[in-house]
Amino acid sequence: MKVIITREIPSIAEDLLKAEGYEVKIIAKNRSAEKEEIIRRGKKADALLTLLSDKIDREMIDNLKQCKIIANYAVGYNNIDVGYAKSKGIIVTNTPDILTDATADIAIALTLAVSRRITEGDTFMRSGKFNGWEPKLLLGVSLTGKTFGIVGAGRIGQATAKRAKAFGMKIVYFNRSKKEKFEKEFGAKKVSLKKLFSTSDVISVHLPLTENTFHLLNKEILSLMKPNAIFVNTARGEIVEEKYLSKLLKEKKIFGAGLDVYEGEPDYDKEILKLKNVVLLPHIGSGNVETRNKMAELAAKNIIRVLKGKKPLTPVM
């Protein structure tokens, strides 16, 4: 059986698949695979291991003539037309749970970096401007006693709230359903989206990207933020009306933002690069060795189980 991996990932995936006797081919190493490459290679593939950057649309799925599973190397799967794949008898899997702590860590890291102006301080030092302690040099804002707003109280949102609570912050959250255990454990309070944005000092986004969440955080919602608010997004860029967020930052209508994801990646609003009140990361929310290895292992195990006629460990629907 043939397994196609669209781009090089940690070798544990390839090792596990080859140990089962599968023929494994990796399309690209230091770049994303082209659509035509995936179509050409995928025609004879029994399984496809994809990345979030691979847009697996209907045309691609129609060319996966003998594919039984598309294993996505990500917790999100908005890059795949899951419903159409299912109609063609193809199982789609993802890598949930594994990314929870790593992404929550990054959300808090961005919060701290913005609130204490860490990157500004680093640039200040490297430019040779430091002449000793000053009483008003790069003053940030305190987190203790402030309100931390979680937009999407799933696994990652709750893990982020746990970390924020350790800084003595009050937790409010917006979610479709009430999370009673979460509320009891962290004293969290469920509020409307508008109230969350108008009352929170830090707002951290943890929603999946769907038709309903695209630009959910639009001009109307973003404009509710307090002047001292910090906005953090480690979920998906398309959830936010990015150009309006850039406008708020440019005009210093909010204190700052920490972003790990962008609308239309790898494209983004280049004007944001000029702003000092933004900390930017290149989509590394799950970027530690342990997490990426576990993601690769889970994706491979899902493929192995399906090709053996068993149920996958983490089907998306």
Structure notes:
There is one protein chain. The chain is built from 12 helices and 12 strands. Strand 3 (47-50), helix 3 (58-63) and strand 4 form a beta-alpha-beta unit. It has a 7-stranded parallel β-sheet with strand order 8-7-6-9-10-11-12, with helices on both faces. The protein has a 5-stranded parallel β-sheet with strand order 2-1-3-4-5, with helices on both faces. By secondary structure, it is of the alpha/beta class. It starts with a strand and ends in a 10-residue tail after the last helix.
The CATH architecture of the largest domain can be named as 3-Layer(aba) Sandwich
Strand order of the largest sheet: 8-7-6-9-10-11-12
What is the total number of structural domains? 2
Major sheet characteristics: 7 strands, parallel
Structural class: alpha/beta
Extract low-pLDDT stretches.
none
Oligomeric assembly: single chain
Helix % is 25-40%
The helix count comes to 12
Rounded to the nearest angstrom, the distance between the terminal CA atoms is 25 Å
CATH topology of the largest domain: the name is Rossmann fold
Could you state the order of secondary-structure elements as H and E? EHEHEHEHEHHEHEHEHEHEHEEH
The CATH homology group name of the largest domain: NAD(P)-binding Rossmann-like Domain
| Percent range for β-strand residues | 15-25%
- Main CATH class of the largest domain: Alpha Beta
Query: What is the residue-averaged pLDDT?
Result: 96
Number of strands: 12
